[in-house]
Every structure is written in structure tokens, then in C-alpha cells.
Amino acid sequence: MSEDPVVTALRTALSAAPDPSLHLALGDRLTVLGRHSEALQAFQQVLAANPTDTEALTRAAQAAESAGDAAKAIGYRTLLTALGAADAQHAPTAVPLTPEGESPAGGPGLRLVGAEEPPPPAGIRFDDVGGLEAVKKRIEMSFLAPIRNPSLFKAYGKAIKGGMLLYGPPGCGKTHIARATAGEVGARFESIGLIDIIDMYLGESEKRLHEMFEQARRTGPTVLFLDELDAIGQKRSQLRHSAGRNVVNQLLVELDGLDSSAGVYVIAATNHPWDVDPALKRPGRFDRTVLVTPPDAAARAHILARHMEGRPHQGLDFAVLAAKTQGYSGADLVHLADTATERVIEEVLAGKAQRSVSMADFGAALKEVVSSTGPWIEMARNYALYANEGGAYDDLAAWLKKR
Ligand SMILES: Nc1ncnc2c1ncn2[C@@H]1O[C@H](COP(=O)(O)OP(=O)(O)OP(=O)(O)O)[C@@H](O)[C@H]1O
Ligand SMILES: [Mg+2]
Question: Is residue 44 part of a domain?
Fold first, then answer.
């Protein structure tokens, strides 16, 4: 197998000038390629010259962990804690060096970590997702923990396998939590709009889908997000276009062929789980169907507070606002906070003095922005009542009852 061109380029550059930022970039690239022991060596080069370099320590800890050397990882983390580095356990992974055209952030291609250009903001984390504790726990066990403790999971013969199907009303955080999953471990996030695949690559959809899975396998820890699974996963017999049918078949092949060591985790999402092809729900595929509910009161307060962070506000009682927004989706809450804020901005633009966003602004915004989850919940109720074969929607039924 020929060497990765980016690795070659960095090694050449390093032989000319052993710059620490180049070592970091090389380590990051090797991490992306899943070559964790080599990545660790690169980070150790930096530490040899400067043993207290927190960036190198953070990455070395992660590389050691991924390479299965828990003792070393603990050593680096202890040092980090001793140095007072913020949140040594969960220090964000640097944005990896990615070849042209596969930039995870959708930004320009080749990017050197540690070069003049400031790194883009780290991805969102679980803490940015309000509520959904059960979903987070599921994801933790099936994807994050194996990445964080590879040797433990290896010892018990358990690997990342299969995927998770998230379903629920629009705007309640399916895409958001998939993104945050990648952010938790610095994995790549790749979203695949299945509708786009069918439309844009007519006749080539299967090939395109295969390429996307291939790329994820090659680049190491990746969260592959398949949005609108119902659209292609419709009971195959119902599909009018054979294009869609072929894509379903290809998807089955890809899911079955996912090598558990590849570190690829597939999260799919749908608003219509009842339309998803049953073949996709068999064990080893999307056998875990997880309900993503609208946020409860505590989560609503969290989402509102998070969204107002950094904006001038005064006297906001998030618990009171949470009590007034029952049934609001996360997206509704974001919209509410934005509407309240816009009210102040409009005033200032009209020449009034600058002021903070207040409860009164939220009061006005509450008249404009209403909950959007109602229609979905009504539809879901019917399925939970009349189409709950095999208990597929037990969690939905339980949640509806509790409401
Ligand atoms: N639980 C949540 N915590 C924090 N923010 C949330 C949450 N749910 C939704 N949001 C906010 O609402 C936006 C929309 O949510 P998201 O795109 O994840 O919804 P979705 O469930 O994927 O909806 P759809 O079914 O329409 O695709 C997010 O970008 C985020 O800002
Ligand atoms: Mg979504």
C-alpha cells in the first residue's frame, strides 16, 4: 500500500525543519488514518523537546488510549491535571488534517494544525444537548466507551457494531446529538442526505453510498449520519423508483460489511420510523430504535440558558420560561430566544439605547413562537396505539402516557 500523500509531505517537511507544529500535524493526520501508535510517536517528539506542552500532552493521551496503552494515557492525563490544563479528561481533539475535499467542517481543504490560521471552534459536545440522557447513555455504551477504552472492550470481545436509529418530532435534536457524538471524541462527522444521494447521483447512487462508507472506514473514527432514513428505507415494495430500492440494498450491504474495527458508527434519523424498511431494523443494522423526545422542563431551561449565553440579558428566569414552553422542541426554543433578542436589536436599530434582553421580551416572543411538535405527536399516537407490533413503539407509548 502506498503511503498517504499528506503523511509523506509532512515527513519531508519535518526532515527539513523539525518544527513542533509539524509533528502535531503529522500526529493528527496519523490519528485520522487510525495509526495511533505512530501518532503517539509524533506527539512524543514534541514532548521530548517540551515535556509540558499541553497540546501535545492532550493528543498523546488520546493516542495512547486509542493505541491501547491505558497506563501511558493515564500518565499524560495526570501530568495535564498537574499542569492545571482545563478539563484534561475531555480536552477537545484538534481538527485533523484532512486531504483536499474531505474537510469535516466543510471549510477549505488542507489545514495544518498549529499553523498561523486559528483552528475552527471545537465541535459541539453532549453538554450542548439539553436532556436526552437515555440517548446519551446508549451512545456512550455503544460507541464512545469503546473508543475511549479500546483495550477493555477488546478484552471482552465487544466492538462497535450496528447503528442507532433516532426517531422523533422535528427539531428535537436528532441531528444535534449525532453531531455532538462526533464532538465528544473528536471523530469526523459525515452527514449523508439520502434523498440527495438518490436525486443527485441518479444511476450512481449505490456507488456514491459505497464511496462514503469506504472513506469513513479509511479515515478512522467517524460518525456517519444518515438523515431521512424513511425516504429510502420505505418498505422496498412501495418504492416507485428503483433507484431508491437499489440504495436500500446497497445500504444493507454496507451495514453488514462494516468491520467492527473501523470505528465507524452509523446514526440514522427519521420522523417516520413506521416507514422504515424492516430489513434495515434487523440485528446488526439499526437494531436500536431510540426515541428523541421534546425536551423536558430541565432540558428546556438548559437549552434556553445555553442559547442566551454571551448575549446581554438581565433578570431572565429560565425555570419560569421552561414552565411556559411545554411541548416546545429544541428548535422552537432557539427560535424563541432569537425572537426575544431580535426585539431588542430592532429597538436599538431604531435609535433607542442599548439594553439587555428581559423577561418582557420573552413574554412578547412567546406570543409569536408556539410549539411545533403537536402534529407529529398526534400522528405518533396512532402508531403507538394501533401499530405497535412487537412492542417497537413501547417507549413512545410510555412517553405519550406520561405526558
Ligand atoms: N435537545 C436539544 N438541546 C439543545 N439544542 C437543541 C436540542 N434539540 C434541538 N436543538 C436546537 O434545535 C436545532 C434543530 O435541531 P435538530 O436539527 O437536531 O433537530 P432534528 O431532530 O434533527 O429535526 P429534523 O427531524 O427536522 O431533522 C439544533 O441545531 C439546536 O440548535
Ligand atoms: Mg435533523
Answer: yes
Q: Tell me, using a 6 A CB cutoff, whether residue 333 lines ligand 1.
A: no
Q: Give the model confidence (pLDDT) of 344-384 as tens digits.
A: 999 989 999 999 999 999 999 999 999 999 999 999 999 99
Task: Give the mutation target among 124, 128, 164, 172 for probing the ligand 1 site: most ligand atoms within 8 A of CB.
Answer: 172
Q: Which of 245, 237, 227, 124 is nearest to 167 (CA)?
A: 227
Is the CB of 294 inside a 6 Å radius of any atom of ligand 1? Answer: no
Residue 145 shares a structural domain with residue 273:
yes
221 lines ligand 1 (CB under 6 A): no
Cα 370 to its chain centre, rounded Å, is: 27
Nearest CA, atom 9, ligand 1: 330
Cα gap 291→298, rounded to integer Å: 18
Q: Using a 6 Å cutoff on CB, does residue 331 contact ligand 1?
A: yes
For residue 190, report the distance from its CA to the centre of ligand 1, in Å: 17
Do 227 and 256 lie in one domain? The reply is: yes
> Which domain, by its residues, includes 328?
297-368
- Ligand 1 nearest-atom number relative to CA 271: 25
Low-confidence ranges of the chain (pLDDT < 70): 1, 85-122, 158-162, 199-202, 233-244, 259-261
Phi, psi (deg, nearest 5) at residue 395: -65, -35
Q: Is residue 121 part of a domain?
A: no
200 and 339 belong to one structural domain: no
271 lines ligand 1 (CB under 6 A): yes
* Same domain, yes or no: 79 and 181: no
Contacts of 47 (CB under 8 A, 6+ apart): 53, 56, 57, 60
Q: Are residues 140 and 229 part of one domain?
A: yes
Residues 308 and 204 in one domain: no
